[in-house]
Specification:
Number of helices: 4
Number of domains: 1
Helix content: 25-40%
CATH class: Alpha Beta
Radius of gyration: 13 Å
Order of helices and strands: EHEHEHEHE
Strand content: 15-25%
Number of strands: 5
Length: 119
Amino acid sequence: MAKLAISITHAKDDADKATVGMVVANAAVASGQETVVFLSTEGVYLGQKGYVSDIHEEGFAPLADLLHNYQEAGGTVWVCSPCFKKRGLTENDLIPGAVIVGGAKLVEFLSQGASCITY
Protein backbone atom coordinates (compact mmCIF):
# COMPACT_ATOMS: atom_id res chain seq x y z
CA MET A 1 0.00 0.00 0.00
CA ALA A 2 1.30 3.43 -0.93
CA LYS A 3 1.15 6.44 1.36
CA LEU A 4 -0.28 9.76 0.27
CA ALA A 5 -0.51 13.11 2.07
CA ILE A 6 -3.00 15.64 0.78
CA SER A 7 -2.05 19.08 2.10
CA ILE A 8 -5.01 21.47 2.05
CA THR A 9 -4.09 25.10 2.68
CA HIS A 10 -7.40 26.70 1.74
CA ALA A 11 -10.94 26.84 3.08
CA LYS A 12 -13.62 29.41 2.18
CA ASP A 13 -10.86 31.67 0.82
CA ASP A 14 -10.61 29.20 -2.11
CA ALA A 15 -13.37 26.62 -1.72
CA ASP A 16 -12.53 25.14 -5.14
CA LYS A 17 -9.04 24.09 -4.00
CA ALA A 18 -10.35 22.82 -0.66
CA THR A 19 -13.01 20.77 -2.43
CA VAL A 20 -10.67 19.31 -5.05
CA GLY A 21 -8.22 18.37 -2.30
CA MET A 22 -10.95 16.40 -0.55
CA VAL A 23 -12.04 14.78 -3.82
CA VAL A 24 -8.48 13.54 -4.37
CA ALA A 25 -8.26 12.39 -0.74
CA ASN A 26 -11.44 10.37 -1.20
CA ALA A 27 -10.08 8.79 -4.37
CA ALA A 28 -6.85 7.89 -2.60
CA VAL A 29 -8.46 6.29 0.43
CA ALA A 30 -11.02 4.49 -1.77
CA SER A 31 -8.18 2.95 -3.78
CA GLY A 32 -6.64 1.51 -0.64
CA GLN A 33 -3.87 4.04 -0.10
CA GLU A 34 -2.85 5.06 3.42
CA THR A 35 -4.07 8.65 3.20
CA VAL A 36 -3.57 11.65 5.45
CA VAL A 37 -5.21 15.03 4.90
CA PHE A 38 -2.98 17.69 6.46
CA LEU A 39 -4.83 20.96 7.10
CA SER A 40 -2.62 24.02 7.42
CA THR A 41 -2.83 27.82 7.11
CA GLU A 42 -6.44 28.71 6.15
CA GLY A 43 -7.16 25.01 5.61
CA VAL A 44 -7.32 24.43 9.37
CA TYR A 45 -10.83 25.88 9.33
CA LEU A 46 -11.96 22.70 7.54
CA GLY A 47 -11.23 20.90 10.80
CA GLN A 48 -13.56 23.19 12.77
CA LYS A 49 -16.99 21.82 13.75
CA GLY A 50 -19.71 23.07 11.41
CA TYR A 51 -17.38 25.12 9.19
CA VAL A 52 -17.81 23.05 6.00
CA SER A 53 -21.61 22.80 6.22
CA ASP A 54 -22.22 25.56 3.65
CA ILE A 55 -19.36 24.88 1.22
CA HIS A 56 -20.60 23.38 -2.04
CA GLU A 57 -18.70 24.02 -5.24
CA GLU A 58 -20.70 23.51 -8.43
CA GLY A 59 -20.02 20.13 -10.03
CA PHE A 60 -18.84 18.49 -6.79
CA ALA A 61 -20.43 16.88 -3.78
CA PRO A 62 -20.79 19.20 -0.78
CA LEU A 63 -17.55 19.52 1.16
CA ALA A 64 -19.25 18.26 4.34
CA ASP A 65 -20.13 15.02 2.51
CA LEU A 66 -16.62 14.67 1.09
CA LEU A 67 -15.03 15.11 4.50
CA HIS A 68 -17.48 12.73 6.17
CA ASN A 69 -17.05 10.06 3.49
CA TYR A 70 -13.27 10.36 3.67
CA GLN A 71 -13.24 9.82 7.42
CA GLU A 72 -15.78 6.99 7.20
CA ALA A 73 -13.51 5.24 4.67
CA GLY A 74 -10.64 5.35 7.16
CA GLY A 75 -8.86 8.51 6.06
CA THR A 76 -6.85 10.44 8.64
CA VAL A 77 -7.20 14.19 9.28
CA TRP A 78 -4.28 16.05 10.82
CA VAL A 79 -4.55 19.73 11.74
CA CYS A 80 -1.45 21.92 11.98
CA SER A 81 -1.05 22.90 15.62
CA PRO A 82 0.50 26.37 15.23
CA CYS A 83 -1.91 27.27 12.39
CA PHE A 84 -4.89 26.21 14.50
CA LYS A 85 -3.70 28.13 17.56
CA LYS A 86 -2.89 31.24 15.50
CA ARG A 87 -6.54 31.40 14.51
CA GLY A 88 -7.72 31.19 18.13
CA LEU A 89 -9.14 27.69 17.80
CA THR A 90 -8.93 24.96 20.44
CA GLU A 91 -9.32 21.18 20.56
CA ASN A 92 -12.96 21.72 21.54
CA ASP A 93 -13.47 23.25 18.07
CA LEU A 94 -12.24 20.15 16.22
CA ILE A 95 -14.42 17.82 14.20
CA PRO A 96 -14.53 14.29 15.61
CA GLY A 97 -11.57 12.21 14.50
CA ALA A 98 -9.28 15.10 13.62
CA VAL A 99 -5.94 15.28 15.42
CA ILE A 100 -3.83 18.35 16.09
CA VAL A 101 -0.21 17.64 15.12
CA GLY A 102 3.02 19.51 14.62
CA GLY A 103 4.99 19.60 11.41
CA ALA A 104 7.26 16.83 12.71
CA LYS A 105 4.38 14.34 12.38
CA LEU A 106 3.93 15.20 8.71
CA VAL A 107 7.69 15.02 8.13
CA GLU A 108 7.76 11.58 9.74
CA PHE A 109 4.94 10.38 7.45
CA LEU A 110 6.65 11.81 4.37
CA SER A 111 9.99 10.26 5.36
CA GLN A 112 8.29 6.86 5.23
CA GLY A 113 7.92 7.26 1.48
CA ALA A 114 4.63 9.15 1.30
CA SER A 115 3.97 11.37 -1.67
CA CYS A 116 2.40 14.78 -1.08
CA ILE A 117 -0.04 16.85 -3.11
CA THR A 118 -0.92 20.38 -2.02
CA TYR A 119 -4.12 22.32 -2.67
